[in-house]
């Protein structure tokens, strides 16, 4: 029954299906990779234009949007190959079928993504800008952060969502070691600067 889906004609759609399942599992176990600040990261207006047409204007989590796109691509590809087989007795070449499936899948995903954005309004409340991580405490995960040598830290925002950022000490003399907690006080691009928990400036916070 599933043998045709392992042939070269169906291979792109089988791969897309496997990737879709993998991304769905990542989103389901909550690794915090699903939300992107499209305004801040891409420097475009996410409330209109091409992002709105693609279904990203409503701040739908990017992994859910991508999962939907892969699903639409897979369904469109299988439909194209099944139709071609019924009409000609053989499926199309995988390249030709993939091109048609990409166009059809993108159009179908526009409807699907906009529909998902309407029925999943809760996601909009968890999309934050990068600056919202300032004045939040983070925990150094590995290594030692020094000036000029950042380390990876985990920060949990006000919605309970985990973010992973690179951190350096705010002061030249400080060092942030694995397991230390620090307050993010400023950022330059994607790099954050933090005061260690024991800093005297934080004792009254």
UniProtKB/TrEMBL annotation:
Give the domain of life.
Bacteria
Q: Which UniProt keywords apply?
A: Membrane, Transmembrane, Transmembrane helix
**Organism of origin:** Sphingomonas mollis
Taking every annotated instance into account, which residue ranges of this chain make up the domain Inner membrane protein YqiJ OB-fold?
136-194
- Where is each Inner membrane protein YqiJ N-terminal domain found? 11-105
Task: Locate the transmembrane regions by residue number.
Answer: 9-33, 62-80, 92-112
Spell out the InterPro entries in the cross-references.
YqiJ_N, YqiJ_OB
Name assigned to this protein: DUF1449 family protein
